[in-house]
């Protein structure tokens, strides 16, 4: 069974940057389309970025040109580089397999505030 462990969140001022990591264990990571999701208080979880097996990337309009998703198949890890952060980016961030989600990890809190 796939297991997911997110890390790298924290408190950052508007305009700042953070890099999130997600370690994936339990299966053949390189075969999966991976995604980063976020859930703000009182909101539904949303997909903000995805990366295909060959490295193709897609982003939600709200994060396009600010966030970059990447993967390291040798390390079974997917990353989310977040630049020019805004208060509306505040949320718990999760990663998961896009096509067939595994049980969700604990997520990592990102708070953007001055």
What would you say this structure looks like, in words?
There is one protein chain. By secondary structure, the chain is an all-beta fold. It contains no helices and ten strands. The strands form two sheets. It has a six-stranded mixed β-sheet, with no helix packed on it. Strands 1-3-8-7 form a four-stranded antiparallel β-sheet, with no helix packed on it. The chain is globular and about 40 Å long. The termini are far apart. The mean pLDDT is about 95.
Please describe the topology of this protein.
Layout: E1 3-7, E2 10-12, E3 18-25, E4 34-39, E5 46-51, E6 57-59, E7 67-72, E8 77-82, E9 91-97, E10 108-112
How would you summarize what this structure contains?
It is built from no helices and ten strands.
Which descriptors would you attach to this protein?
single chain; 114 residues; 6-stranded mixed β-sheet
Q: Calculate the mean pLDDT score and round it.
A: 95
Individual helix count:
0
What is the C-alpha radius of gyration, as a whole number of Å?
Answer: 13 Å
If strands are numbered along the chain, what order do they take across the biggest sheet? 2-10-9-4-5-6
Percent of residues in beta strands: over 45%
Helix content range: under 10%
Structural class: mainly beta
């Amino acid at each position: 069974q796939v297991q997911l462990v997110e890390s790298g969140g924290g408190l950052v001022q508007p305009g700042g940057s953070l890099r999130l990591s997600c370690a994936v264990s339990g299966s053949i990571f390189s075969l999966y389309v991976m995604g980063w999701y976020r859930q703000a208080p009182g909101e539904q979880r949303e997909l903000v970025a995805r990366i295909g097996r060959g490295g193709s990337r897609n982003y939600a309009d709200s994060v396009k040109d600010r966030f970059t998703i990447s993967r390291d198949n040798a390390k079974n890890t997917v990353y989310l580089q977040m630049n020019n952060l805004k208060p509306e980016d505040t949320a718990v961030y999760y990663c998961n397999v896009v096509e067939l989600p595994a049980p969700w990890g604990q997520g990592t809190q990102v708070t953007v505030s001055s």
